[in-house]
Amino acid sequence: MHLAYPAVLAALLFCTGLYGVLARRNAILVLMSVELMLNAVNLNLVAFDVWLRDTLHAGQALTLFVITVAAAEIGIGLAIVLLVFRRRGDSGIDRLRDTAEPPDPRPGGAPDGAGTPADEPRHGGPRTPVRKAGTTA
C-alpha cells in the first residue's frame, strides 16, 4: 500500500477542518470541523501503523484513544452549545464572549480564588440582622 494516498487524504481532511474552525461562526459547525481534524489524525495514525508494520499496533491503539477523547469532547461541547442556545436563542460563537463574568467593580478587584465575603450577602441586597426568638432590639 502506498503511504501517499492516505496521507494526502488526511491532509485534505485536516485542511477542510481547519478552514471550518477558522471561517465558521456556528458552534455546531466548528465542533464538526474539529471532528474532521481529529479523523484526519486518526487516518494518519492507522496508515503509518500499517506502513511500518508495527507488531504492537500502537497507531491503532492511539486511534482508539483519540476516538474516545473525541466522543467525550463532542458530548461536552454539544451540552454547552445547547445550554447557550436555550438561554440566548442563538448558537453563534461571536456572542459567547458575552457569557464571561464581568470584572469586579471594587477598586483593585478581588484576588483570584476569593469568594464572596461573609459580611456581604450572595444575592446582592442589603443584609438584615437576624434576631433570635424572644429578644427585643
TrEMBL record:
Keyword Membrane among UniProt keywords: yes
Signal peptide: none
Keywords per UniProt: Cell membrane, Membrane, NAD, Oxidoreductase, Quinone, Translocase, Transmembrane, Transmembrane helix, Transport
Reaction(s) the record says it catalyses: a quinone + NADH + 5 H(+)(in) = a quinol + NAD(+) + 4 H(+)(out)
Compositional bias ranges of the Low complexity kind: 107-118
Annotated region (Disordered), positions in chain: 93-137
Major localisation: membrane
One family name in Pfam for this protein: Oxidored_q2
Gene3D superfamilies the UniProt entry points to: 1.10.287.3510
Bilayer-spanning residue ranges: 61-85
A GO term for molecular function: oxidoreductase activity
Membrane topology: Multi-pass membrane protein
Location(s) in or outside the cell: Cell membrane; Membrane
SUBUNIT field: NDH-1 is composed of 14 different subunits. Subunits NuoA, H, J, K, L, M, N constitute the membrane sector of the complex.
Physiological role: NDH-1 shuttles electrons from NADH, via FMN and iron-sulfur (Fe-S) centers, to quinones in the respiratory chain. The immediate electron acceptor for the enzyme in this species is believed to be a menaquinone. Couples the redox reaction to proton translocation (for every two electrons transferred, four hydrogen ions are translocated across the cytoplasmic membrane), and thus conserves the redox energy in a proton gradient.
Family: Belongs to the complex I subunit 4L family.
UniProt name for this protein: NADH-quinone oxidoreductase subunit K
Organism the protein comes from: Streptomyces zingiberis
Gene: nuoK
